[in-house]
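Weekly puzzle thread! Below is a chain. First person to post its structure in token form gets bragging rights.
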Amino acid sequence: MNDKVYTFRDAKMSSLPLRLINAIGAGAAACGLQYPSLKADDIRAAAQQRTGLSDFGDAGIHEALQQYVDSAENESHLNLLGRFAARNMLVNALSNRLQVIDWAKQHPQITDEQIEQPWIVVGLPRTGTSLLCSLLGLDPGSRPLLQWEAARPMPPAELATAAEDPRIAAFANDVKRVLQVSPALGAMHPFGSTLAEECTAVFTYSLRTIGIETIAFVPSYGHWLDRCDMRPAYALHKTVLQSFQYAQPTARWVLKSPNHLWCLDAMLATYPNARVVWMHRDPADVVTSLASINNAMQISFTNKHDPVRVGNYWADKLVDGIAKGSAFDATQPEGWCQHIQYDDLMADTAGTVEKLYRSFGDTVQPLHRRRINTWLQHRPQNAFGRHGYDPRDFGWTQEDLRARFSAYRQRYGIRSAP
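Winning reply:
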């Protein structure tokens, strides 16, 4: 256990060589040289050169890319490191997209794979979705998407060799380098090659996800994302799952992402028999934690860091996500999803999972129950330190936040955190 407390300020770049790199970038920018290029054509060309492929699939990807790079150039004030981070993220996303589309074309039989009754855990970030996803993934008949395979999806790992896939170690080394530069991030978000990953990572291939808003402050892109058609992103998401399932037969997937709240209609159109679970927690803690994390992600990548502005942007975004999710919920028949309180999951973890299974007419099998209990006994606690956050850092009080989310708290009976 690591008792060190990290705030978003601790994520600021302290490495002298990296600070010197940023200084060089600032000098170049003062001379009118923006490097590396964030032009959409250059990013597409880099992905094509890396993969040797050219079919990006539906044309909507080009609009998404243009929206993001325009917003990054005009609003995020990226420094040199930030430009490298944004470009690398975009080139990786498009490279993965090209490879997924190409692999699916080479293996048309994957469309026969049925994604049956996947668990899909939704809810605001920091509401216990990761914990629940891990517990559901302990069912021998289920499996989550893993962090390493979402980062390097193609070709899909085959059953006979998946446990020794070299991409597992490669991803672990990538994470190690990130945490060496910014150890605070390890206290704020669970990293690990074989840990469950969010669907957000797969939506990145379509550049339609709140996940890519964390690297840079890109509000214009975010507003476009709130209104865009998510059906193409879900179609590619399904293709990815079918590809993985073809290589490693899977009875049931365990999926999760806050992203789903904004587009539950597209999600259910793609996975109509999903077992949907919506996690709820006092927004006063959720919003402050998320504001801190996103400030930590951006603090070293920008020349103009404003924690209050970033925090309020994400608070507004969560208000919008709740409004969209609640509006959809109001139109659906009772039981279309199950609502779980974070407090209940923490107070009786195994019992909450048992109750959840019963609500879908299922039972937790003895081996699954035993694995849950063993996992709870041995899971690491605060291995990389603890995340500290204070609403005052963003101009708020807990009372302000509870008032702002009062309709949500009342509708779903959410208790105030002590």
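Puzzle host: Confirmed. Bonus trivia for everyone else. The chain has 19 helices and seven strands.
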